[in-house]
Amino acid sequence: MALRELSDFLDIPSLRVTGYRKQQDRVEIIVELKANSAVCPECGVRSTRKHSEKAIPMRDLPCFGRQLYLLLPRRRFKCNHCCKPFTERLSFVDFGMSFTKRYEQYIYDQCKERSFTAVEKQEGISDTVIAKVYESFSTAQMQRGGSLRQRPGKSGGA
Ligand SMILES: [Zn+2]
């Protein structure tokens, strides 16, 4: 029951909370995926042939003054259709990242208000990683805006 409430509080609809561990400086929330199938990125066919699963820590938004990690299953499937093995893509994580998208957004917002060094200290992650997140977010934001801003001084001009 309490775990169901925690699932609701976590607010990622595709996940179910199965437990948690509280540590000095962090909370780990153990989750599982509700669906037991995934879509093959190669051919778009949904597959249920899971062939491996491994829990990996995924950094998420801080909670009650502690760092928060989701222990999230990284699942590999074998496609029913094209027979290729693939790693499941998740809507709330950019493929290959160990942060949730909303945590990346949070880092980006923090960086707009303070220095990378301050964010590094506050979040306990390296400034190289922070710079990478910041850069990828600014690029994504520009692309969403429809036009890539031209660098001044390049091409054209009076
Ligand atoms: Zn396939």
Oligomeric state of the chains present here: single chain
User: Into how many domains do the coordinates divide?
Assistant: 2
The number of E-state strands comes to 7
Q: Tell me, briefly, the overall form.
A: globular
Give the distance, in angstroms, between the N- and C-terminal Cα atoms: 67 Å
Estimated radius of gyration: 19 Å
H/E series: HEEEEEEEHHH
Described by strand count, sense and barrel closure, the largest sheet is: 5 strands, mixed
Look at the helices and sheets and give the structural class: alpha+beta
Report the β-strand fraction as a percent range. Answer: 25-35%
Q: Could you name the key traits of this structure?
A:
158 residues, alpha+beta, 2 domains, 5-stranded mixed β-sheet, two-stranded antiparallel sheet, 4 helices, 7 strands, globular, disordered C terminus, binds zinc ion
What does this structure look like?
With 158 residues, this protein is an alpha+beta fold. The protein folds into two domains: 10-90, no CATH class; 99-144. Helices cover 30% and strands 32% of the residues. It contains four helices and seven strands, in the order αβββββββααα. The protein has helices at 2-10, 101-113, 116-123, 127-144; strands spanning 15-22, 26-33, 38-39, 46-47, 50-63, 66-78, 85-87. The strands form two sheets. Strands 1, 2, 5, 6 and 7 form a five-stranded mixed sheet that branches. Strand 6 (66-78) and strand 7 form a beta hairpin. Helix 2 (101-113) packs across helix 4 (127-144). It starts with a helix and ends in a 14-residue tail after the last helix. The relative contact order is 0.12. Residues 148-158 have low confidence and may be disordered. Bound molecules: zinc ion.
